[in-house]
Amino acid sequence: MARILVTSAIPYINGIKHLGNLVGSQLPADLYARYMRGRGHEVMFLCATDEHGTPAELAAAKAGKPVAEYCAEMHAVQAELARGFRLSFDHFGRSSSPQNHRLTQHFAGRLAENGYIGEVTEQQVYSSADGRFLPDRYIEGTCPNCGYDKARGDQCENCTKQLDPTDLIDPRSAISGSTDLEVRETKHLYLRQSLLKAKLDAWIDAQSDWPVLTTSIAKKWLHDGDGLQDRGITRDLSWGIPVKKGPEDWPGMEGKVFYVWFDAPIEYIAASAEWAQQHGHPDSAWRRWWRTDEGAKDVRYVQFMGKDNVPFHTLSFPATIMGSGEPWKLVDYIKSFNYLNYDGGQFSTSQGRGVFMDQALSILPADYWRWWLLSHAPENSDAEFTWENFQASVNKDLADVLGNFVSRVTKFCRSRFGEEIPEGGASGPEETALIARLSARLVAYQTHMDAMEIRKAAAELRAIWVEGNEYLQAAAPWAAFKTDPERAAAIIRLSMNLIRVYAVLSRPFIPDAADTLLAALKTENRDWPDSMPNALAVLPAGHGFSVPEMLFGKITDEQREEWQSRFAGKRG
RNA sequence: GGGCCUGUAGCUCAAUUGGUCAGAGCAGAGCGCUCAUAACGCUUUGGUUGGGGGUUCAAGUCCCUCCGGGCCUACCA
Asked: Which residues form the domain of A492?
C-alpha cells in the first residue's frame, strides 16, 4: 500500500466555475484519488478556495458585502457544488484560514532568513477615488501605439503591444473610471527565485516523465530572455495575509499583505492542517504527508492543474519550498491540462457563455458530466464541448452500452429465475474466453489510470463494458434457457457478477451510478478485482438483487436544442 | 515579435517514440438477435496522415518551408 497525496489547483473565489475549470483540475484529481483509494492505497486529496487578491475585493464590493463575508458565502457555494459533482476531497479548505496565515508567514520568515527575500521600492499607480493601488490591468486608457481607447495598463488588446501603465494616454481606473490617479512610491518584497534558477532547472530536468505541457512551460520561464525573474510577493491590499516574518512584524511592511500567488500554493499544506484540526488529529497527522523528516518520505505527491497554473507550481512554489531550507515535500508529478472550449469559442465567465457548474447539475446528474468531461479531457490539446457530441457520447456509452447491459441482464434474470442469482450449470469456453479478455483489459485500464492517461482509461473502461454485451450475444442465455435452463443460469450468474465488477471499476468515473448498481446487487463488496475469475464469483447463487431503476436516461433532441440556445449567451 | 503545442476517416481521438496492408468509437451501409433503455452483436464503406521539399532500406513519426488552429509571454488569478 502506497501513500498518495493529491491536490487540485484551488479555484478562485469570485464566482461559480464553468466546466472548463472543472475538467482542468478538480475532476481529474478526483478521478485519480478515487482510483487510488479503490486500489487500496492511502490517499489524502486536498483542495480549497483561493480567496485573496484584487478580484475578490472587487467582487465583494459589487455584491455589497464585506470581503470576508463574501468569501465565506462563496466558499460554501463552491463546496456545495463540489459535493454535487461528487468531488471526494478529504478536505476543501480556504486560503484565508488561520493555518494558512501561519504557514505563509512562516515560509516568508524562513525565506528571509536564508536570503531569498529582497525589498524593492517601486512606483505604482494609486487611485484616490478607489482608495487603492491599481494593478496594471485595472488601469485603462488610450494606447500610445494604435490609439485604441480601451487599452489596459499591461497590454493593449487591440494591437497587442506590451505597455506600462504610465504609457497610457488619459489613464483612468477600470474600476471607477476615475482619472484622479497618481504615481506613488511603495515598497514590496520580492521572492529572489533567480537565485534558485540552477536548482530549479536541474529539478525540472530530472522530471523526464512529466507531460511536455508541464516541462515546456517551466523551461520557457527558466530560460526565456534574462531567465527566471524575481517576483513580487506582496501587495498593497487590506484583504490577505498580513506580511510578517514568522510570528514577528516586518518593519516597513505594515499594512501590506502577501500576494495571492505566494499564499495560494501554501494552502495545499495548510488545508491538511485544517483537515487535522477539524478531525481532532494532532499536527503529526498532517505533517506526515508533508515533512520528509516526519514520515512523508514514502508519499507520492501528484498535482492537477490547468496550463495557466503551471509556472507557479513548477517554479514559484518549489522555490518557496527549496528556499525555506526545510524538508517539505516537493511535488513528484504534475498533470496539466489544456483548455476546454465551448461550441466554437471559449467558455466565458464574464459573458456567461458555456455551462457553469450549478447549471450543469440543474439539468443532469453529475455522472453524465463526469463521464463526458473525463473521457474528453483536454490532455494533448484544447478540446471542445458541443451539445451534439455530449448527447451522442453520453447516450451511447452510458445508456446503451452500460445501462442497457445492466437492464437486459437483471430483467432477464427476474423474468426467468426470479430476483436472486440462479444456481446450477457450468461455465464453458465462452466464459474462459471472456475472462481472458477482461483480464487483459483490466491490466490496460490500470496501466492508463496509473499513468493518468485519462482518455485512454475511459476508452478502455468502455471497452470493458462492451465485453459484456458481446458475451451475452455469443452465450445467448435466452436461447439456452429453452433447452438447458442450467446453462442459462450459469451465464446469468456470471453476468450478474460482471455488473458488480463494472460498478467497482467504473466508480472513479461515475460514482453515483456505481453505487446504484451495488445497492441493486445488495452488496457492499467494492474490492478491486485482483483476479477476474475470483472477482466474478463474489456473488453466489441464491444472492438476492433488485432490478435497478433505469441507470441512465437518454438526452433527447428537444432537450439538446433547448440547452444549446439557453447556454449560448448571457446567463440569467 | 519570440517561444511552445497542434493539424490523422464526415465527427472525436489512437498509433509501443523511425519498422508489416495508419487503427478505434460515433455517424453511414448491410446482415443477425429478440434478453434489453427502437437497445445489443457481426460485417462493411471511408484517409496521398494540412500543402510542398528533404534525410533514410524504411517517415504520421526526424529536418526545412508554406498554410490553418490554439496557448504562453511574468502586476488577473
From this structure: 386-535
Residue with cell 500610445: A144
Each residue's pLDDT tens digit, A55-77: 898 889 889 999 999 999 999 99
**Distance of alpha carbon A222 from alpha carbon A128, whole angstroms:** 38
CA atoms within 13 A on the CB side of A258: 31
Q: In this complex, which residue's CA is closest to the C1' atom of nucleotide B72?
A: A217
Does A464 fall in a domain? Answer: yes
Task: Report, as an integer, the average pLDDT of A132-155.
Answer: 80
Q: Identify the domain boundary among A140, A168, A191.
A: A191
How far does the CA of A213 sit from the C1' of B15, in Å? 20
- Asked whether A370 and A86 are in contact (CB, 8 A), the reply is yes
**A399 CA – B34 C1', rounded, Å:** 19
Pair (A126, A58) in one structural domain: no
Helix (H, G, I), strand (E, B) or coil at A121: strand
- Among positive and negative, which fits the CA dihedral A201, A207, A211, A214? negative
Q: CA A539 → C1' B57, Å?
A: 58
Q: Is the per-residue pLDDT at A349 higher than 80?
A: no
**Strand B footprint nucleotides (protein C-beta < 7 Å):** 1-7, 11-14, 24-27, 32-37, 39-42, 69-77
Among A325, A333, A327, CA closest to A203: A333
What is the SS3 assignment for A33-76? HHHHHHCCCEEEEEEEEECCCHHHHHHHHHHCCCHHHHHHHHHH
Q: Does A169 lie in the same domain as A184?
A: yes
Q: Which residue has the cell 473525463?
A: A374
Report the largest interatomic distance among the alpha carbons of chain A, rounded to a whole angstrom.
93
pTM of the model: 0.95
- Whose C1' is closest to the CA of A136: which nucleotide? B75
Nearest CA among A562, A552, A566 for reference residue A514: A552
- Which parts of A are annotated binding residues for Zn(2+)? 143, 146, 156, 159
Which residues lie below 8 Å from residue A404, measured CB to CB, with a gap of 6+?
A469
Give residue A135's Cα distance to chain centre: 28
